[in-house]
Write a structure and sequence with these properties.
The protein folds into 2 domains: 77 residues, Immunoglobulins (Immunoglobulin-like, Sandwich); 213 residues, 3-Layer(aba) Sandwich (Rossmann fold). Helix 3 packs parallel to helix 5 and helix 4 packs antiparallel against helix 5. It is of the alpha/beta class and 332 residues long. The two termini are 59 Å apart. Strands 4, 7, 9, 10 and 16 form a 5-stranded mixed beta sheet that branches. The protein has a 5-stranded parallel beta sheet with strand order 12-11-13-14-15, sandwiched between helices. The chain has a two-stranded antiparallel ribbon with strand order 1-2. Helices cover 32% and strands 27% of the residues.
Length: 332
């Protein structure tokens, strides 16, 4: 608008700001551009937190706000998930865009393992009355580790441990188990019964103890060789765990610590010579015997069996190839 004003006899037209309502509405609505699709390979478990760049927003009447769902940093499941981002301005106008985040699971090359051995494999406890504590047996705990790390991939751990078997019986029965199961990996922990009978908690320089040590050594060797005869590519052999304290009222089933040490030295030698993979829980038990070994001084508590499972699992993952799955789960 214009207004009139007389100045020294002249009539001037001047601009008028009276009654102005301020600037008019912004004519350009907000625009938003999402980041490119993202892929994350080699995921263990059912999902993982994923962070992504914020979308680029232009124009719009300030303040302009932006949000994405799911948000950057949220836990994304395996498979392909659509992320939708929205920009809104002060005039309630919106713009949206979307992109995909795809998580591919990690898989391991072997799908079946046979756990071979005696009561330490089968899951016997050392408390009176003794019984098979199958939920806490190391093959059961190992199965749980596989299920949590490689979910939905049908990896199986078959418990072939039999309480009371000496290593000779394990060698004898092994071909039958392997012919039925056809595993890709064998997990071997055996020899306790031989040492308990031949050495006990006494001196190791007796003929009986020396014979027991040799029997364990060559029994482990024969188990490795028979596994190879069935084309088992991955063979894992565990050292024996140390004795622990015996509580009052419990049966003393301890094996002399020196006998365990000498047996483990022989096991390490055989494993190296035969090209198998050593699993070595023994040093993890030292200083924790009261925590890991049960009241009879021989068998293990649940915490000890968990250490066995963890040690086998670490050796398996360090030895057997892992890769990203070629397929993903359904789009969410």
């Amino acid at each position: 608008m214009m207004r009139l004003r007389w100045i020294t006899g002249a009539l001037l037209l001047l601009p008028c700001g009276c009654g102005s309502s301020g600037p008019g509405p912004t004519t350009t609505a907000p625009q938003i551009a999402c980041p490119a699709d993202a892929s994350v390979n080699g995921i263990t478990g059912n999902g993982q937190a994923v962070s992504f760049s914020a979308p680029i927003v232009t124009a719009g009447a300030p303040p302009v706000t932006t949000r994405c769902a799911p948000a950057s940093g949220d836990i994304f499941p395996l498979g392909s998930t659509s992320v939708t981002c929205t920009a809104g301005d002060a005039q309630a106008r919106q713009a949206t865009c979307s992109f995909r985040v795809t998580l591919t699971a990690l898989t391991i090359a072997v799908k079946k393992f046979d756990a071979i051995g005696d009561s330490f494999t089968e899951g016997e406890n050392g408390r009176p009355p003794q019984f098979l504590d199958l939920p806490n047996a190391y093959p059961t705990r190992l199965q749980e580790l596989f299920d949590a790390t490689f979910p939905g991939q049908d990896i199986k751990v078959v418990n072939r441990g039999v309480s009371g078997w000496p290593i000779e019986r394990t060698v004898e029965e092994l071909p039958g188990d392997l012919s039925i199961d056809r595993p890709g990996g064998v997990l071997l922990l055996s020899g306790f019964n031989n040492l308990f009978t031949g050495c006990g908690n006494g001196p190791v320089d007796t003929s009986e103890c020396r014979h027991a040590l040799e029997t364990v050594q060559f029994g482990i060797r024969d188990c490795i060789r028979r596994s190879k005869d069935f084309s088992v590519r991955y063979i894992f052999v565990s050292t024996l765990t140390p004795p622990g304290p015996v509580l009052p009222g419990a049966r003393d089933r301890r094996i002399a610590g020196d006998a365990i040490v000498q047996a483990n030295a022989r096991i390490r030698q055989i494993v190296a010579g035969e090209g198998a993979t050593l699993v070595d829980p023994y040093p993890l038990f030292i200083g924790h015997e009261a925590e890991y070994v049960d009241t009879d001084g021989l068998h293990l508590r649940p915490a000890g069996y968990q250490v066995l499972a963890d040690t086998f699992f670490a050796a398996i993952r360090a030895t057997i190839p892992e890769s990203a799955l070629s397929t993903t789960s359904a789009v969410r």
